[in-house]
Each structure stands twice: as C-alpha cells, then as structure tokens.
Amino acid sequence: MEIIVLNEVDSTNTALKEMLRDGTASAGAVVYSENQKSGYGRRGRFWHSEKGKNIAVSLALQPFKGDDLISLATGVAVLQSLYDEYGIHFSLKWPNDILYKGKKVCGISCEKIATANGQVIVLGIGINVNNTVFPEGMSDTATSIHLALRDYAPKESEITLRGLLDNLLDSIFHWHDRLSSGFTDEVLSAVKTACINIGQPVRIVNEGVTVAEGIAEGIDADGGIIVITDNNTPKKFHSGEISLR
Ligand code: BTN
After folding, report:
1. Can you give the pLDDT of all 245 residues of the chain as single tens digits?
2. Where are the alpha helices (DSSP H) in 143-224?
3. Homologous superfamily of domain range 3-194
4. How far is the centre of ligand 1, averaged over its atoms, from the C-alpha of 125 (Å)?
C-alpha cells in the first residue's frame, strides 16, 4: 500500500479529493499528514489537529455493495486497533465517534465523490494521539490516547504516530475486506457489540432540535440506527440528518 505523506496540508480529505479528481490518485490511495491545518469533520465542522500530535489520514475506496456500513466498520477497526495496541477499551458512539470516558478521541468522516473514473469513497480519520492540552472550549469534550493511557498508568512516553498508523491501516483494510467480501452480518454484529448506544436512551437531534427520543434498539445493514420511540414505534435515523445526545 502506498501512503502519500504530506508534511503540511489544509486537509488530508481535501488533498485526496483533489488528487482523485485530477487523476493523480485512485481507489486504494492513502493520504497522511502530521500537520493538518484546517481539517473538517461531519457537517463541515472544523476538526482540530495539533502539529506532530495527531493522526490525520484519508483513504480512497472503490464503492461496493454493502458499503453503507463502511464508516461504522472503520469505527470497529479503530477500536480494535487501539485495544490491540494499548489494551484500552474505547467506545464507539453511533455513527462514528470514538470516545474515552465520554470524551472524543477520534472522528471518522465518509463521503462519496464523483471523479472521471466514477464514484469513490473518501474516508477521513482524525485521532488525538499525543495531545495533552486542547483549545479553549474543547477540553470538556476532547481527549487523546496519551491522556487515556495516563489515566490507566501514569507514564509520559509519547506514542509513535507512524507505528500507530500502520496498525490502524491494517485493521481498517481487514474490516473493509470483510465488508466488501459480503460478510455483512459479521461486521454488523461487531458494530452492534461495539456501539455504546445500543440498549440506551437516546435523543435524536437535527440542527439543535430534538426530533425523537427513545431507546436505541439496533443498527441496520444500511448503517441507520433504530430507535424505539416513546409510543413504542421503531424509527430509523441516518447519520446525515442527525446526531445523538
Ligand atoms: C467528525 O468527527 O466529525 C469527523 C472528523 C474527521 C477528521 C478527519 S482528520 C483526517 C481527515 N481530513 C479532514 O479534513 N477530516 C478528516
């Protein structure tokens, strides 16, 4: 696998999308930077990265039958790789936040873009790795692997970003292979096991407005979350429209 390493970049997602559109990259390409200056997250929100402290990586994938689950499968891949590496159970919050004790360690974005050679999936993964401080307003909601490790056992060693990246990509491609080979049930079952929302009360919020409340019952093969609302009706929600509280 060829990893395109950029010393500095506005956004690995934007850089990869440009390369896909101008034909200098194709499905299978991976763009990585340890100095992302203006990354973005879901719904165009700013994604904070700190030079040399974070992983910012984007992957181009060929669309396939069943690819609706790809960002959730990537969440499972990240969890598994972090558990294998550090022995810490991080949690997956639907649709694609990785948390430690309720604070965000990793975010995953997923877009499908049109190129001259057809559609391509662009997966973006941002991980707070060695951060010890966050900008004003973020410290209540964000944490890093380093801080999570320190919580387990006090130690000051910095994590090697490239080592973590290699394990992470292996895990992501493993779960991608399972999904694209048709093992949807296996992936879905791993997603449901990992997802902390299942069986829990959830509030479905669209642009700040609560649109439904209930108990999250499951996740469908199209990645939607099924919520049993107060009048006992199951309703399905998709990540494009809503967030969970
Ligand atoms: C989210 O939680 O909203 C998703 C965040 C995704 C951030 C990553 S960092 C690497 C890639 N480049 C970007 O500009 N965004 C994604």
Report:
1. 789 999 999 999 999 999 999 999 999 999 999 999 999 998 888 999 999 999 999 999 999 999 999 999 999 999 999 999 999 999 999 998 999 999 999 999 999 999 998 999 999 999 999 999 999 989 899 999 999 998 877 776 788 999 999 999 999 999 999 999 999 999 999 999 999 999 999 988 888 888 888 999 999 999 999 999 878 889 999 876 566 66
2. 145-152, 161-180, 184-194
3. Bira Bifunctional Protein; Domain 2 (3.30.930.10)
4. 5
CA distances to 19, 25, 83 from 116, rounded to whole Å, are 11, 12, 39
- Whole-structure pTM over 0.90, yes or no? yes
Protein residue closest via CA to atom 10 of ligand 1? 56
Tell how far the Cα of 220 is from the centroid of ligand 1, in angstroms.
24
| Beta carbon of 56 within 6 Å of any ligand 1 atom | yes
14, 42, 109: residue to mutate for ligand 1 pocket, most atoms within 8 A of CB: 109
Q: Answer yes or no: are the C-beta atoms of 128 and 145 closer than 8 Å.
A: yes
- The SS3 assignment for 61 reads strand
Task: Tell me which residue has its CA closest to atom 7 in ligand 1.
Answer: 126
Segments making up each domain of the chain, as ranges: 3-194, 201-244
CATH code of domain 201-244: 2.30.30.100
Q: With CA atoms as reference, report the closest residue to 36 among 27, 28, 45, 46.
A: 46
